[in-house]
């Protein structure tokens, strides 16, 4: 038996014994002895109670510290199960609190390094409060940090109104911000709803449209430079080596037949590489200097049939089945440019199905929401997911001998007609859609 339990039991036994003795004196009308032993019994009860309450108070203090997240105490274990468990719970909660604080600090540091503005709202009792806001967000709107969401209504009414209209659901909007009467800047505003069993959050992000454009332009420029430098190095490196070899032969006093043959072969290779480089430059010129379309009313069905007729020998040679579902619509466009775009898409489709057992290409013209859509679908293997976002980049190609400008040129032609060229992967094959805007 533990020490504090032993003393507690002793006090209780003494209180019982003194109570019995006091009752005996009471029954014999010995009032002084009765009062004396009654007092002793009362003192024993009080001492036993204090012994128990001291441990209960220690336990309550630890539990209260856990509830208030006050971990400034340094409790020690004692010979009491209740206190021991409370001390273990205290240190367990302290460790979890420190871990959560570390993670919170880490997450806030990561979110604070983002180049986009970020605000997170949390709903409590049907009232929205600011759960987190990073410095970039406050810098964009030029406002102080508030914990109450309603305070932003007066500081940024346009922004507040957009969030209210979204009803804190998933949405995307664009709006202009003018800070301190400066030139307005456009921002992309997105809201994302996150809901658990007990909590509801609304994540708001603000990103400068100008920065998005600059990043995409920079990425496109870097990709283009990689392709151009790769092509130039592949062409000029062997040419430079051949020229050095010819220079060495030319400096000899006597040039033999073998040397003459080497020079002739070197000149043929240089000529071939030069032609290859000229073709590359011509391809680049076609993309960079696309002529303006000459608009006139044309039949889209006739233009498709003309492109199919032009490639008819290719279809027949490779046993490709042609499926058409063409509604007759007229558009204002440059017929030759649209036909060139279609031929590029058909050539890609022919290449895609060339290794398949069942070869088919389907062309469809239809309308959705008063917009004319021309789609070309093939039964090939499709485009790998890893390169789907690169297929429209200039000079990007996966086939040997390909120029890599077919899809780029087609996209440029469609965009010159104020339309859109989209790629959609299928379970078996690919589909390219041209959306014409009336």
Please tell me about this protein's structure:
17% of the residues are buried. It contains twelve helices and twelve strands. The mean pLDDT is 79. The chain is of the alpha+beta class.
Low-confidence stretches: none
Instruction: Describe the oligomeric state of these chains in a short phrase.
Output: single chain
Termini separation comes to 94 Å
Name the strands of the widest sheet in spatial order.
2-1-5-4-3
Question: What's the average pLDDT?
Answer: 79
Overall number of strands: 12
Percent of residues in beta strands? 15-25%
What best-fitting shape do the alpha-carbon axes yield? elongated
Largest sheet: 5 strands, antiparallel
SSE series: HHHEEHHHEEEHHEHHEEHEEHEE
Structural class: alpha+beta
Q: Over the alpha carbons, how many angstroms does the gyration radius reach?
A: 42 Å
The number of helical elements comes to 12
Give the fraction of residues assigned to helices: 40-55%
Output the keywords.
elongated, five-stranded mixed beta sheet, 438 residues
Could you give a short description of this structure?
This protein is an alpha+beta fold. About 55% of the residues lie in helices and about 20% in strands. The protein starts with a helix and ends with a strand.
Topology:
Layout: H1 3-27, H2 31-67, H3 81-112, E1 117-124, E2 127-133, H4 135-141, H5 152-155, H6 157-165, E3 171-177, E4 185-195, E5 200-208, H7 209-250, H8 257-288, E6 296-299, H9 300-310, H10 312-317, E7 321-326, E8 330-333, H11 335-353, E9 360-368, E10 371-378, H12 406-416, E11 420-425, E12 430-436
Helix pairs in contact: 1-2, 2-3, 7-8, 9-11, 11-12
């Amino acid at each position: 038996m533990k020490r504090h339990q032993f003393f507690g039991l002793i006090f209780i036994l003494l209180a019982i014994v003194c109570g019995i003795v006091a009752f005996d004196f009471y029954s014999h009308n010995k009032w002084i002895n009765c009062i004396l032993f009654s007092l002793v019994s009362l003192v024993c009860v009080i001492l036993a109670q204090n012994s128990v309450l001291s441990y209960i108070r220690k336990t309550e203090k630890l539990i209260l510290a856990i509830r208030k997240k006050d971990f400034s105490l340094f409790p020690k274990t004692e010979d009491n199960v209740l206190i021991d468990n409370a001390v273990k719970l205290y240190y367990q909660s302290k460790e979890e609190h420190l871990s959560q604080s570390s993670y919170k600090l880490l997450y806030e540091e990561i979110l604070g390094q983002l180049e986009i503005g970020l605000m997170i709202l949390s709903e409590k009792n049907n009232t929205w409060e600011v759960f987190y806001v990073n410095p970039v967000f406050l810098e964009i709107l030029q406002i102080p940090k508030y914990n109450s969401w309603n305070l932003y209504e007066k500081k940024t009414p346009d922004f507040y109104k957009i969030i209210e209209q979204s009803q804190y659901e998933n949405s995307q909007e664009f709006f202009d911000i003018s800070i301190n009467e400066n030139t307005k800047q456009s921002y992309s505003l997105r809201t994302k709803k996150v809901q658990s069993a007990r909590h509801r959050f609304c994540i708001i992000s603000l990103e400068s449209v100008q920065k998005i454009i600059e990043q995409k332009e920079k990425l496109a420029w870097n990709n283009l430079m990689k392709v151009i430098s790769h092509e130039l190095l592949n062409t000029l490196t062997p040419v430079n080596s051949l020229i050095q070899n010819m220079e060495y032969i030319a400096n000899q006093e006597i040039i033999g037949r073998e040397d003459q043959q080497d020079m002739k072969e070197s000149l043929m290779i240089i000529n071939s590489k030069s032609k290859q480089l000229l073709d590359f430059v011509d391809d680049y010129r076609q993309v960079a200097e696309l002529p303006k379309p000459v608009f006139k009313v044309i039949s889209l069905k006739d233009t498709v049939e003309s492109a199919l007729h032009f490639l008819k020998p290719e279809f027949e040679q490779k046993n490709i089945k042609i499926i058409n579902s063409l509604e007759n619509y007229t558009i204002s466009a440059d017929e030759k440019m649209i036909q060139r775009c279609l031929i590029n898409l058909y050539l890609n489709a022919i290449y895609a199905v060339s290794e398949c057992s069942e070869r088919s290409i389907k062309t469809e013209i239809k309308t959705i929401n008063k917009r004319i859509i021309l789609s070309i679908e093939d039964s090939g293997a499709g485009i790998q997911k890893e390169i789907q976002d690169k297929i429209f980049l200039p000079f990007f190609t996966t086939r040997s001998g390909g120029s890599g400008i077919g899809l780029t040129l087609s996209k440029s032609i469609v965009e010159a007609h104020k339309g859109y060229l989209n790629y959609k992967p299928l379970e078996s094959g690919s589909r390219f859609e041209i959306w014409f805007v009336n």
